[in-house]
Design goal:
Layout lengths: L12 E5 L4 H12 L3 E6 L8 H8 L4 E5 L5 H14 L5 E4 L14 H29 L2 E6 L12 H21 L4 E8 L8 H5 L1 H10 L12 H8 L10 E4 L7
Parallel strand pairs: 1-2, 1-4, 2-3, 4-5, 5-6, 6-7
Helix pairs in contact: 1-8, 3-4, 4-5
The structure holds nicotinamide-adenine-dinucleotide (NAD).
Nicotinamide-adenine-dinucleotide binds next to helix 1.
GO molecular function, one term: 2-deoxy-D-gluconate 3-dehydrogenase activity
Pfam families: adh_short (PF00106)
Family: Belongs to the short-chain dehydrogenases/reductases (SDR) family.
Length: about 260
Amino acid sequence: MAVLDLFNLKGKIALVTGCKRGIGKAMAEALAEAGADIIGVSANLELEGSEVAGAVTALGRKFYAYQCNFNEREAINSFCAQVKADHPVIDILVNNAGTILRKPIAEHPDEFWDEVIAVNQTAPFILTREIGRDMIARGSGKVIFTASLLTFQGGITVPGYAASKGAIGQLTKAFANEWAAKGVNVNAIAPGYISTDNTTALRADENRSRSIMERIPAGRWGEAEDFKGPVVFLASAASDYMHGTVMTVDGGWMGR
Ligand SMILES: NC(=O)c1ccc[n+]([C@@H]2O[C@H](COP(=O)([O-])OP(=O)(O)OC[C@H]3O[C@@H](n4cnc5c(N)ncnc54)[C@H](O)[C@@H]3O)[C@@H](O)[C@H]2O)c1
């Protein structure tokens, strides 16, 4: 196969969670540019007529909008049943949706812990198990988890986030160990410090923002667009021999 054909996703269908904005939106658009139709899912009924839906359809690809609050276990189960009934074949699953709730550990409420673990850890586990089950039956599929620098580090005031993203690193390996021989690639992308709504407060704090930037070897914060290449790579035949990898996209932060 010619090398550029390895990245071609024509005829594939990709489910991207949390694709209304930020990294998920850039990834959905990139997968569509590479040829895939997109199933988008968001916590609210906000994807109908959204910018991402417009961008995907303008490329001549289909966009299917779904709603699911990943903080509700029953909603996840019904979403999985519905999307599998509507789309018997899903080739690519991108577990991007995530949330972060900050408070020092001594005052950290149970509700913060429960919500962050539910959205960042339990939902991607259930989705991957349910949608991946059909992938292993077919003998092909690509799963991409979204990790973080806090997959490797503890962070400050975000214990649930660090615990859930650490778990994502382990789940990536656990799924890969069972599914690599069944033709399904399971890998993760670990973003560094990226300019999205997730980091608005951090970037507004001039001192913290400057000290973060001084530690990034690339000398700049990341942008959502920096994830377009990595996601297409992990979703395509170009990465067929990659299993259980947590790929940092962090301007060099982890190597420092
Ligand atoms: N921005 C960064 O610096 C950074 C760093 C490391 C990891 N990440 C991870 O990258 C992913 C995308 O983050 P982003 O920066 O684009 O953030 P974002 O806040 O712009 O997007 C997060 C997405 O997740 C969705 N989401 C949140 N809670 C949900 C729920 N209960 N149910 C369903 N969907 C829900 C949101 O609707 C949104 O579309 C997340 O998993 C995040 O943890 C981001």
